[in-house]
Amino acid sequence: MAKELETGNRLVFAYYVTGHGFGHATRCVEVVHHLILSGHDVHVVTGAPDFVFTSQIQSPRLFLRKLVIDCGVVQADALTVDRLASLEKYSETAVVPRDSILATEVKWLKSIKADLVVSDVVPVACRAAADAGIRAVCVTNFSWDFIYAEYVMVAGYHHRSIVWQIAEDYSHCQFLIRLPGFCPMPAFRDVVDVPLVVRKPRKSRKEVRDELGIKDNEKAMVLNFGGQSLGWNLKEEYLPPGWICLVCGAHDNHQELPRNFKKLAKDVYTPDVMAASDCMLGKIGYGTCSEALAYKLPCVFVRRDYFNEEPFLRNMLEYHEGGVEMIRRDLLVGHWRPYLEIATTLKPSYEGGVNGGEVAAKILQDAAHGKNYKSDEDSGARRLCDAIVLGFQLQRASGRDISIPEWYTNAQNELGFRTGSPQSSDAANNNSSFFQNSVCDEFEILHGDVKGLPDTINFLKSLAELRVSHNSEKPYIRERKAAAALFNWEEEIYVARAPGRLDVVGGIADYSGSLVLQMPIREACHVAVQKIQPTKQRLWKHAQARQQAKGQKQTPVLQIVSYGSELSNRGPTFDMDISDFMDGGKPISYEKAKHYFSHDTSQRWAAYVAGAIIVLMKELNVRFESSISMLVSSAVPEGKGVSSSASVEVATMSAIANAHGLNISPRELALLCQKVENYVVGTPCGVMDQMTCACGEENKLLAMICQPAEVLGLVDIPSHIQFWGIDSGIRHSIEGADYGSVRIGAFMGRKIITSIASSMISQASSNSNGHNNHEHDISLLKTEASLNHLCNLTPHRYEHTYVKNLPESISGEAFLKEYKDHNDSATVINAKRIYPIKPATTHPIYENFRVKAFKALLTSSPSEDQLTALGELLYQCHYSYSGCGLGSYGTDRLIQLVQEMQHNNNNNNKSTQTDGSLLYGAKITGGGSGGTIGVLGKNYPQTRQRITQIQKRYQNATGYKPFVFEGSSPGAGKFGYLKIRSRDVSQKNK
Predict the structure, then answer these.
(1) Which residues contact 894 (CB under 8 A, 6 or more apart)?
(2) Most buried pick, 415, 614, 732, 974, via CB within 10 A?
(3) What is the full DSSP assignment across 452-492?
């Protein structure tokens, strides 16, 4: 070690390192190294092995204290994060013993007379520092409130306080030293950016290669998955000829590796190996990503499930042309060669600084001496409020947060415009004619009509830009690059469109057979499909390699590009051999199809799209002999309860069907799409979403009875009424445990009711003695004993006969023991779970009655009483949701704001010319547990101003500015389809 330099008074630093992975320890060691070189004492609190520090620092001023007071995330393997287990482990490690931890750390910090606490990025360390009267600084590229924010959404009501507590702990930090590749971290409003913190190689490339026996003409690849096993058997054929794989962190010392694989020592100094290699294959973490960029080492990476740091590092890597993504299934089966060949063509372009350790150490010294880096006068409470935003929703929209880096914003802006953004009708009409003319210059529309829809015109414009960019040298982000090579521009392309939907009333009662009223919204999904001969399809390189490995030539391949992938951390592309859906000349089972998509979270989205193919195979006996290329572009926001998944399914099914000449009615199309979601995706949804997306019409409510899907017709929205949707910012998912348990509870309730009715029939028959007054009761009971849909039971019969005999809740085990089955093919009972019975059963019975009343009121004469009654029905529906456990803080807060605005307006309108209120009612929509509320108001310009006021008040209360859904558009059936062809081809044919 170099001679230590004495620079002023000796300082004492307490450096806390999170218990998640080596990456934090390896970057901390670089900062610690420079602090000690400057003559200071550093006490490192860590769970990492000693050699990580002692192999680089030999000094009596380094003190190692082995302790883990936060756990990071729990991983089932190198690529799979267990979200619930992570929260439970964090609770066990940091929440339950919190008081003891704080007392111990405060005492210890005082005992070592620490001048500054440094945290990477242990939350409780910041609070302990504050309690000890010591300043604290964080050094990181992400914070745990950000990582855990989405995890709590799948945890039901458990662990919700974790994100809040972590944010509060971070609010005691003085400022943040922020590393490149950073995530949004609103808990830290005072930020100092530093260059990459990387360890430097100790040996030359030649020295390392000579030591490892790597020849000059051989290429070396580092295989690094953080020391975690993937459970595979490595094979010689995984590598191209002339390649050597250097395996880091292998657990099984007895595993016999092929001759072209070399196992490295567990404590190998990774920077030396990386600097001596030609590329790396592994998962993305800060350590590997930063060092790969610093050494200009191309990186082939595989996504991890549910680790929210990753997309930011991934985009930084790709922005500097340093990375290529490998599909997980290709990793596991050994189709490495095409990715390695692509990696060797990359020219990583990172030219930024790599002395972040030295820079951070200087900043920490200044902070310990009392220098104030505070650049923001916001209070701790203000910073805490900012942090809580992430407790509601990871809002990754570009430009929304000052903490989103430029390179990430660029990566998101895939089209340069939002295809479904609300705009005024005048602006839409003005833009429509301009864009329509420009689109017509590029494409000839052989069938269909854009119907003046601005989003459809924009989508066609984006296709025209892709056609130009395919032959352009201009660099594009990966989505655009993949999409530009997707189509054969000399062939016809089919385009379908399906909107999202606003659940006006009916909601979760659909699976119980209720009447529902649904409105298609303005935002929609577009899907472009091209059916093409396999010989004319341009395959991605790894797809070519896969077919060659199978000995296949010119077989049909499905290739899909999905825009907006970074908004939900999904892979932007998906491909498969269509033959994968066949087994022994027959389509595979739905269970096998579901498994096919479920093993890789980043590719799971493809089930909503490719699932249409297997459903058409199984239900309509369609066989696909041609290849299929598809582009999916949706402006329906995900996780907001407005049927983003149904719009994708319906647009996809419509595009595929029309491209293959299938004549499917909108109703049948919707039922097929429900099978995609129920059986291929595995989500227990009803059918109202798909029916609205397929059968809805602009400015009308689709009225249907979900038994299973009887469309009663369309209800005109009266001219004096308007509906809005306001997003709560809380991510809604019908895959969540709350929705599923309520649905199961309703089906359990139906089973219990039919069982009670059967028992009462037996009792009534034995006691009747021929009296006619029992005949009517027995007839009713017989009907109820064979109840197919819970909503066919009237509220008065439910109250009179059954409600008193229903349990409030029941365990799955107890129910199965007594009733055997709940007769719902879309859900499975968990024996260990407690299910709500009475509220889950009550809701659909009364909801069906409320919807019937709502429909009748809509067609009645306009009056203040009509609007008041409609609004009251919506409020009742909302509180019924809450009784089932499907409410949320955000949606309840929005409902409260609507009520306040409504009643304040009533008081103010007494002195104005306006009669009555402007807003009348609101309810949570769709599956509940977050998402969007629907609002009923008068169709006045002033009402839109009230909606804007609610939007601002909600933002002031939560820090989140809600998206407002306004307007309507036609369903897929009404839109039909477009068949387009390049005008260049049309002119050639002429």
Answers:
(1) 726, 728, 922, 933, 950, 954, 962
(2) 732
(3) T-HHHHHHHHHHHHHHHHTT--S---HHHHHHHTTS-TTS-
Helices and strands (H and E) in the chain: how many: 35, 32
- Mean pLDDT lowest among 437-451, 552-566, 710-724, 871-885: 437-451
Q: Do residues 884 and 836 lie in contact, with contact meaning Cβ atoms separated by under 8 Å? A: yes
Long-range contacts of 78-81 (CB under 8 A, 24+ apart): 78/225, 78/226, 78/228, 78/229, 78/230, 78/283, 78/304, 79/225, 79/230, 79/283, 79/302, 79/303, 79/304, 79/305, 79/328, 80/304, 80/305, 81/304, 81/305, 81/306, 81/307
Tell me the per-residue pLDDT of 494-551, one tens digit each, with 9 for 90 and over. 999 999 999 999 988 988 999 999 999 999 999 999 999 998 888 888 888 888 777 7
**Position 874, amino acid:** L
Report residue 310's pLDDT band, with 50, 70 and 90 as the boundaries: confident
Q: How confident is the model at residue 985 (pLDDT cuts 50, 70, 90)?
A: low
Confidence of residue 748 (pLDDT cuts 50, 70, 90): very high
Give the max Cα distance, the chain. 108
Q: Which one of the listed residues 272, 689, 727, 738 is annotated catalytic?
A: 689
CA distance 418 to 420: 6
User: pLDDT by residue (tens digit) across 177-222?
Assistant: 999 998 878 778 788 999 999 999 999 999 999 999 999 999 999 9
- Asked if the model's pLDDT at residue 272 lies above 60, the reply is yes
Pairing relation of β-strands 515-532 and 627-634?
A: antiparallel
Residue 376 Cα to chain centre, angstroms: 32
861-867 CB contacts, 8 Å cutoff, 24+ apart:
862/718, 862/720, 864/915, 864/916, 867/721, 867/916, 867/917, 867/920, 867/936, 867/938
pTM for this predicted structure = 0.80
Q: Could you tell me if 224 and 279 are in contact, meaning their C-beta atoms sit under 8 angstroms apart?
A: no
Tokens of 596: 């096919």
| CB-CB contact of 121 with 18 (8 Å) | yes
> Is 115 one of the catalytic residues?
no
